[in-house]
Amino acid sequence: GEMKVYAVESILAKSEMLVEKAGASDSPDPADIERAKDLLEEVIADRTFRPNPMVNKGIPFRRLADLIREEDPVRAIDLLEQARKNQGDLEEGYENLEIGLIYKELLDDPDQAVEHFERVHQNELAPREVKQFADQQLEQLKSTRLEPPDLYSPDMLDKFPREGDLQ
What we know:
Low-confidence stretches: none
């Protein structure tokens, strides 16, 4: 009941404090980040925390995903998908935006990235800034995924060695 709600708030606050402490330091203690991750894992694993509004909204999932995205992008996506599922129809686009970014920046999978940014674009509940960011990402991806270069265009031909150059 009530105690559990407070427990979540305080665990999340403690985890956040550790992350901020590490972020503020020139030589952050890796143990702080590990401890922060453990605290988030604890909240995510404990089913009795599920009804908590912060858990329900995916906060601990998103924070943990953010901490591990570089070292374990696949698990980060998994956490974000869990958070998205827990929210059902109330999902506001944050998870899809993050998943899209991980596919784009870390997994080099533009098709999956586009698919997730499109979902944000179509999401009625997504806040304006979330949508705008997703749309920027889409623009970027679409401009880099244009037609394959025309190998016979004049400027491409300049890039090939000519017969005489090969001696």
